[in-house]
Amino acid sequence: MPRTLALGLIVLLALFLTTPRAVAGPVKGIEIPPTIDLDAAAGAATTIPNEFLRGKFLFEIGIARAQAGDRATARALLRQGAELIRKAIDGRKEEGAGGYLAVHLAALQYRAGDRAAAAETFARVIGLAKAIPAEKENRKLDLLQFIARTQAEVGDFASALDTARGLFSSSMEIFVLEDIARMQARSGDVPGALRTAAQVRALGGRAKTRQEADPAVVACHELVHAEMLAEAALNQAGSVKSAAADARKMIQEALRLVDRSLELRTDVGAIALASIALAQAKLGEAARSRETFARALEVTEHIEGFQRPEILAKIAEARWKAGETAEARVSLRRALERARPLKDQFPQVDNLIVQVQIEAGDLDGALETARASQQERAELVIYPEVFRQLVRARAAKIGPRPALEEWWKSVESPLHRAYAILGTAEAATATTIPNSPVQP
Question: Is the Cα torsion angle 232, 237, 241, 244 positive or negative in sign?
């Protein structure tokens, strides 16, 4: 399926760039610093062997510096980070391969508040994608969809929609546009989301290829559309009475789409149901919300492979947001149990569970999950960014140095150690790093 394939490629890229295997090797020259602060984190950057990962880490410290008010140091760190990432991009000789790293650079620049530089980087990589020859059309389309989705993730919806037009010759365009609409709705741009959805409906009449006519593809499209409607309804919940009425109509339409297409794509449908249940909860329809959550869980029991625990974790996240904290924790435990047989293949499930546990305030559960994962795999597979959040939350509770010490002996990756120092330094300085732009 186009959407599944595209997202799978993104996951594979993320795993290549962020797992401990990408930075395997002995730890040299890094010990617990005498003073845990952002200077110590910057010093730890020198131990990261991978140029891209070292550059990204410097970006993170630069953003932290900017938020702490040290803009001069922030500018220097951001400049160093960009130079390292560009060097890594130049070292990727395969056709179009450096484009994925360039997209990450653009997203980092956008987060740092340098939107002009981000736009320039995005434009450069779009040109690179369009220059990929016709015989490698799949590579070209995958890079374009990655660009469009990343632009939407940073909130540049106009550019994302423009990039998506480059996918016109493939069925992938519909799924990318649906994702853009979903992110627009989540950000609060409900009118924009509905306009994008209308564009998708117009494209729906264009189906000419066998793939586009595949009932499972159509079902996937409808269920993603249902999720978008649920996101829009969620945004409208709690607004004026007329907006709440519109939200209920959106939920009714979303449920109609789920009823029609659920059997063909239960994996996509379960997530749509969780989104609908959350919107119902926020609209004060507690009984209906519980029924919809129960339906999502029942559907998930029939899903095989890594998708089952992954979807269970996403349902748990929605339940926590709906105020069902105890139920969310039960779902997370079930997700972890289902993930056990797949522990050597899909570490993203462990990461998702830990992240949801942190967000839900279940720090003890997050620590237990991370430690169990480490013991079972004989290495830490928690992504550095998630590990940073975990150590930061732990440091806020027990203090930076104890939080750092409890992981230090068991974590051998220089990358993870560097992120642990950064997380504890953030806790020490009460500096957090949201995904909002900061102009250094």
Answer: positive
